[in-house]
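Hello,

Following up on my earlier ticket. Below are the two sequence lines again, exactly as submitted.
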Amino acid sequence: MKAALRIYSDILQLRRETIAALFETHAGIAFAFKMFFIVMLIAGLGRWFGIPALIHQPLLSEEIHSAAQTVDRTSDRLIEMADASLKNVSQENISRLINQAIDEIIAGGIDITAETLGEALAQAGVTPASLQAVLDRVEAAPEQFGLLAEQVDAAITQLETEVADALVSSKTIDQLLAELDLTPAQLMLLLERAPDLAEMTRAAEAQGATEISLASEQLVETIAQIPVTPDQIRQYLTEMLLTPEQAANISVRLGLTKDQQGVIYANLIDGANRIDSALIQAEEEAARIEPPLGTRTSRMIRLFGQWLATPFEVMARWLFFALVALLTARLLGGRGAVSQHLAAVALAAAPAVLLFMTYIPEMQRVLPFSYSIALDYFGRVLALIAIVWMALILLKTLAISHRFSLWRSAATLVVTWLIIWVVIPAASMAALFYVLRG
Amino acid sequence: MSNQTELVGVQAVTSLSERSVDDSTGTLALIREALFLNENIYSIVRDSRSSLGRGFAAILWILIIVVVARGVALLTGLLTTPRLDILQDQFYAALTGMEFYQSQVERAPEFAQQFWQGYTALWESLRLLGGFPSTTGTLATIAAVLLSTLLGWFFYGLIAHWTARWFGGSASFGQFLGALAFSYAPLLLTVIVIIPGARIAAPVILLLLLVTRYQAIKTTHMLTPGYSLAVLITPYILGLTLLIGIIIFGVAYGVAQFPYFEDIMRAGNPFRLF
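Thanks for your patience. The regenerated structure is below:
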């Protein structure tokens, strides 16, 4: 051990006699190769700084678990929001609010459209979100609802005209009520919208008109020509004048019964539960496909393997250069054997322990950002020192192994670089050109 | 002071234990020395009584170690990589439960077997591409290593020996083959794959094989470095030329099967390529 350290120290000091003595014996050449491996393994120790990141890196099952928790939180929030908006849309509330809104509209003589209805509901405290949730459940869309309202408006106008022409008596009115299935209050409300109609009604009653059947038939015929069916009118009026029974009808139509509210909640919760159970299943599957030794243990073992392969990684980068350098050195008069030449290249790796920090992986997840950057740049500074030192040792060891001067040694390296990056590509292109074109 | 320091260094070098190699050295010891690029072992093998026998034993030892290492690497790899077989089974169960599959099987009963074969081949390819260990991949690698090593040893040895003799080499074919077998020592570096995550690039092995073969050729046939280099690369040049010829004529044969290609080319060689 002591001798090995002594030799290592001499190599770093570029001591000629020691280096030459190494090339004379096979033990010395073997020492050079062993030293290369050990030095590169020491440099590769920087990889082990990646252990904290490997330990903290979540497993697949943990990532799925965290995704499941996110879905849980999101669905809980969605349910809370739905709950908050639906809270205002309970059966009693909606009937009361809509009733109140319609009363205001009718009393104000405003045309009933989707916009006016919406405004009135908003004023009554029904939020757009809850109204939208309600209206979405309606078979007819709000626009259709408004269209229906317009149609009914037109129908009522027509009705008013016809009623004005017909001789309306109380019996007629009764019959009309029977045909339309309207409550007296509803019909009166209609009639109240046409003051003349009310007047005419009273006048007709006073006159005791006799053409009841004809009038009622005419009325029925007229109503039949209106592009709104009696059912629609009935429905519309049902919605407009909300008695508790009619409110119950609306709730059913709008899907706001307690049962249906329960269905909405159940659907929401069921959806969340389904997603949840899918994620739980995925988590279980992820746990099943983990390596038998466990994921984190496997990561450590693989890190060990990568560390062990460090010298071979360096060889992969430099062996071709070294072999071409051998040919170049021989062309320039070198007399070193293959083993001596490769041992000379291996000895040049002596300062490579300074490359230790270049093998440290990204530390930004473990260290503060400024420290990880400082580590990176300081590692590069040390690497620069190592590269210069290694180049000097290589010049020396090549010169000793091939028994020529340092200048020839430098020329060997330069010519090798030119051969690899200029001559070989140019020759390959020329050969290809010759083969293809002749 | 400087001379004394240097003397200490030289003494440290001489204190390194030199392993002596001679005819009595065991095959494994010779293989180890070959790995450390000790040229002397080739002359020892050449001069031994049964060069070919020693060489054959060496190559068998190398192959046994490499094959065992591959097997152990498969086991350690399976212990440290995700269990793709479970995923594979689940996807298979899902696919075979689909209506499309059922209808295909009803239409053609052999579809089930074909589907299973194709599905298994796809997953093996995915394992190979993703670097996951697989039994099929390992067996294929072992077979490739065995065949390429044994056939390469013989045919490369044959062509190199003829070329060396042409250049004035003095060894017999048996002597040369025996020595050449020890040049396969760099294959032992692949043992590192036993540790999951450890890899050695194929070009490293190939370049080291070139180095050891060069040493075997130079030492066994006692040629100059230039001729030794020529003997080293001649089998590769011949093999490459043969391969290029096969490819060129193979493409020509394939293209000639197209009925209109002949007419187009006879019409005037439109791009003046030929």
